[in-house]
Amino acid sequence: MALLNQYKENTIEAGCDEAGRGCLAGPVHAAAVILPIEFYHPLLNDSKQINEKNRYLLREVIEREALAWAVGICSPEEIDEMNILRASITAMHRAVSNLAIMPDHLIIDGNRFYPYRKIPYTTIIKGDAKYASIAAASILAKTYRDDFMKKAHEEFPGYGWSKNMGYPTRQHKMAINEQGICHYHRKSFRLFDEQLKIDFE
Prior knowledge:
Blueprint: E1 13-19, E2 28-34, H1 52-65, E3 68-74, H2 76-82, H3 84-97, E4 105-109, E5 121-124, H4 132-155, H5 161-164, H6 170-179
Parallel strand pairs: 1-4, 4-5
Antiparallel strand pairs: 1-2, 2-3
Helix pairs in contact: 1-4, 2-3
């Protein structure tokens, strides 16, 4: 199914999405993107449905052809302080605030958002698979977060972040249990498993 270009016609509309909400380590990244009404790319989709090579290819296209785009982040410390939902929304607010063009309407992936500067908004479940601007935002948020975690991996290679990107894989959890945590970890998350075992079922 082709992605839709706009939710509300005749408006300057920005799509917003985040990446890294379910991770144990690293910041949460969010992006906001305003695309031309006629924008189309055959590969564009929810970032989770696209391989890494094509995500970076799409990032170049989006950054070149978007009317405006921006990325915002919330640090692990901020996540611990305000909780992951509020931090994800705050990162979206920061992305919108950095746009070169202020939108008339926001479309948000998911079902929760807090108003930003009285700009009207609509939340859309699985919006990154329905609207081009949200899909574009998901690509930017994902690739910029991956870049961050690959650099963090160079500093702390034991957690496998170059592959798991901070998500709670078995390797990551085992490394936490063996090595402890570092300053990139979200201390408000459940980081230590009481027992790690192989499931043979």
